[in-house]
Structures
1.
Amino acid sequence: MYGAEKPPGGESERTAFRQAEKKYKLYYDDGPLKSSRKKKRAKPVDVSDVIDFEAISEAHERGGELPVGVAVVRCGFGRPVFCLEGRPGFYFIPGALSLEEQCQWMRESLLSFPQPPNRSNHNAIYGPLQDLFAAAKERKVLVKDESDGDRPTWKFVDEAEVPLRGNGCTSYPASALLRKLRWSTLGLQFDWSQRNYDVSLPHNKIPDALCQLAKRLATPAMPRGEEFRPEAAIVNYFASGDTLGGHLDDMEADWSKPIVSLSLGCKAIFLLGGKTRQDNPIAMFLRSGDVVLMAGEARECFHGVPRIFTDKDTAEITPLELHFSRQDDCFLLEYLRSSRININIRQVF
């Protein structure tokens, strides 16, 4: 998936990080994920070594001892902030977002953040797509308009307006495009092909409410006396079977400033490795509302997401489902039940 960095040759298959990715990846009884996945049963996965910060936090509040290698940071944040020995600059804040905040930013991630001039993975093929979520909800279809000579454009139309098959018309259901949405960017736009920020590209500013939230959440990882400046954000969208390969977030100028990463939707496994792929990664659960901060040396650590859990018993999204129970939210709820969204906010300069 996007963001993965692959070493030359077959080296990636032999690294400790790659082995951990394979261990937690979604497989079905008769092989990896296929198009007929609805008829297959997921193979069980051993999660006995996965750190559960939610359980650790609950035990800590009752006066229990912390597991070996886990410590609590005292920073006046108002809730437990955990760190890992051997990974300086990494912070985990379980349940940092309220249910209302989770729902708010899930809505924004689907309705607002992919809106032009912000870019998404669809731009390279279709150009800017306006109101993708609304078009999918209304069962519209994206069609190519070639009436403008050498500069064909794409537009959403009602199903009834799609020309009959056989006349060369190219079309795609908006619902399928929504499911293929993998990333969108807001604030300063990241150019994936060049792996840098292109300050010349038009963009929407990060909403003030999200900026204020990120500033507050970044506090435990910030150098004393400094305030986090949110300048760019990348929103990742995961469906069942999607992964985010091991990679580094190394394009920002000052690594002492954290990346603030918000988790929304279905539960996932996050891998935090070391400075090489040969280092054994630490696996941990990410639930909706959890926040991860990575600053300093932690910015030099490979990390990725090898698995999201979409089964009813493992996704752990019941509170969100209850919140989105209104009739108007049916389509959003349908998306939520098989998806995870990650918003990671950065200070670029």
2.
Amino acid sequence: MSTNISAHDYNNISITILDSAVAEAKGAVCLDGSPPAYYHAKGFGDGANNWFLYLEGGGWCISDEDCAVRLTDRSGSSKYKPKSVYFGQNKSQNQTENPDFYNWNRVYVGYCDCSSYMGDVELKTNVTRRGARVFNAIMDDLLAKGMSNAENAILSGGSAGGLGAMLHCDGFSELLPNAKRVKCISDSGFFIHAKHLPGADKRAEYYANVSAYHGIRVDSLPSSCTSRMDETLCLLPENIIRDIKTPLFIVETAFDQYQLALNYFSNESTWWNCTNNIEVCTPSQLQTIKDYGVALRQTLQEISDTTSVGIFVHPCFRHGHFYEKSGWEGSFILGDKTIAQAVGDWFFDRASFQVIDYDNELPRFRNCSKFIASSYI
């Protein structure tokens, strides 16, 4: 049984607490054992049978101690999720703001497992790691509420949720065998290994720890990847992108604020200042930024011959796009298109889109839409 709390207006969407998912038959719970949750705005008109799902992000945790701090906030518990959320941008019901998807069923899936919706540990302790069950339980509920009749569907996500959207992409497509189109979108979820840059071993070790701690099953990863390399490296998008059969659109910046500023490439504590004002960056930081931009672009260029993949890589410092106007219909323009226009054309097969900005050796701060950093990655 789901618990609903009434919304105040058409874009302020009430939470659905999926109490039925807690039963042992499913055992789908957040880190703290609370039920999973999502927000659903029903489609209408010719969008009534179309579905746009967005997987919230929130980083990862890799130990009981690391996860314990998540038990009392929204990244590890549905108890702290807002009772309603405002649906804007790619989830907006405003046709001007969201012309291609405004009347679809729009679903915002709450993140509370810290494993990119991939964990599956049977043992239930004070930290319960069952992200894959959370994903499956929510999909089951949405299928029962009409998604099984979907004509068009998109699975998207941001950051850790963007990685989850990639990892679940083909499985999501298999849930909708009768749909006309099923595609996936990753927003700032392309975390790179960058084997030739400093810290590569540390990055590989981190994802190995995510996999081990959360019990990510080998059979939940593409066999074509796990058969040719260590399975833990199959959490890295560059190693699975060619194994994803469902069409996928990648939205990234060449200079990801999270990957740079939160010590993904460096242990320096001054990175937040640098990523907010390039004039205070040290020569070493500037070189790291340049090297990262080259590595990200090269990694995506290598898969650009895959025609079903859409790519939008701009030069502005940020992390995450779909939660605000400046990352959707008010975004930086590439190929004469905003992100909203590029995604819409790609999804409806009006035009392919693969544009990677190569003009900027360092990130742009001017002539970029304003960006307010998200609290949840």
3.
Amino acid sequence: MDVDLCIWLILCATGVMGQFQVEPLESTVLKGSDARFSATVQGMWEVMTWNVRGFLVLTVPRIGNISSSSEQFSASFCSAEDTSCVVFTIHAASRMEAGPVICTVQGDYGSKSAQLHVQESGTVQIKEGDRKVTQDEEVDFNCLTSAWFPSPVVTWNLNGGAVDSSLYNSTHVAHGDSFNSSSVLKFKAVKNSTVECLAMLQTLTKPLSSSVHLVVVPKPPDWTVLIAVVCSFGGFALLFLLIYGMVFCYKRRREKEPNYQEEMIKRLRTQSQLSGLRPPGQKQGQVNAGYVTDGQKSVTPSDLTDGASTRSNFFEMPDAVYNSTDNGNGYSIEGEGFRKHRHATTV
């Protein structure tokens, strides 16, 4: 008995006639790579067909040659001895082939459907390029991706280590049938670093990346505090010197300022010295012996210098003060309302 006929009779007896399955039911590939699906039929079958996005692209007979609408599509048995398993391949898959992939087995088997997803990677670039900044300066880098489908997952590395997601923010914008994205990283520059932006898709074996170098220049010394301290001490020192100078000048001025008695003594000494230097024949001034001091009422003839002539005049003047006596000014009152004055002149 033929082997295939025996298998068909066994399947009919066990009730599994008309069953088959397609794997995987969902496949995601990167644009340009191959997508593969396999169909396993339990039982006798004659013809299998494959449709991509509603178009018949390939026919597989159990016995005979496989026919394809394009070289992009092909099929083969899993092994030469096992005709129950067929592998269907879409070569260099693009987003044009993305969608439902349907396998149909003629007879009582019906159809099984799978789903194909095609991803597309674009470009990634850090906009700023290499930078040189001052230490502790806040820096930001903008990473741009374009022509990705779907939108990529953008991450950052700093000196080979992953950057915390709280330090950057990413946005994605649809652009036609693809996506563009922008991710901004902000951090404080501490030392020379390598900044790397990475864009990743599920189908990529490794992320696409763009890297730049950050050169950190030590910041100049902060002289603010030192200047403030110096200015403060300088201000206090200047104020102290100003006050000290004012006090010193005041004391010197007081020391140089003579009192009345010292000035009179100095003048008398000067006059005495000048008297000794008079030329011969020049008369020397004499003391006015007729001068009456306070409390003295008259001048006696003995008080006058020898050889000097004296002339005395007596006259009365009305006094503005009546019935009064002044004992301390050298005047005497004779008669009511009159005060006698004496003037003596010695030549």
